[in-house]
Specification:
The protein has about 140 residues and is mostly helical. It has a single domain, classed as Winged helix-like DNA-binding domain superfamily/Winged helix DNA-binding domain (Arc Repressor Mutant, subunit A), CATH 1.10.10.10. Helix content is about 70%, strand content about 10%. It has five helices and three strands; from the N terminus they run H-H-E-H-H-E-E-H. A three-stranded antiparallel β-sheet has the order 1-3-2. Strand 2 and strand 3 form a beta hairpin. The longest helix has about 40 residues.
């Protein structure tokens, strides 16, 4: 019976529900939330290696690489060799900046809906959990 209250399952189900809500809002704009998050992370933090971006987003490199290929094909990011021949650096292009500007109102609406559903204590708990997971 204790397994019925599994925190891992509960967190995965909550994450899926939140992700689906964002996906619904962003779908008409032809972008996934993981792609939007990658673009905004790069806009906020500047160009990064794929490894650093994966760590920042909490994604494995394979998932990020797959998403980057899609947005690179759309010319929203450019990927080029870093200082080290093995590293690749990602940065947002002008088209990527325009895409974020276009999609931002839909993201903001999804953010507000999620915050309302979670309530202020839920939002605080989620942010606290995310901050602790980073450290």
């Amino acid at each position: 019976m204790e397994c019925a209250d599994c925190l891992c399952l509960a967190s995965r189900r909550a994450a899926l529900a939140i992700t689906r809500a964002f996906e619904r809002n962003l779908r008409p704009h032809g972008i996934r939330i993981t792609q939007f998050s990658a673009l905004t992370a790069l806009l906020l933090r500047g160009p990064m290696t794929i490894g650093a971006l994966a760590d920042f987003l909490g994604l494995d490199r394979t998932t990020l690489t797959r998403n980057l290929k899609l947005i690179e094909d759309r010319r929203w990011v450019s990927v080029h060799a870093g200082e080290d021949a093995r590293s690749r650096v990602v940065e947002v292009t002008a088209a990527g900046r325009r895409k974020v500007d276009t999609v931002y109102p839909a993201w903001r609406e999804a953010q507000a809906t999620a915050a309302k559903t979670l309530g202020s204590s839920g939002v605080s708990a989620l942010r606290d959990l995310a901050a602790r997971a980073i450290h």
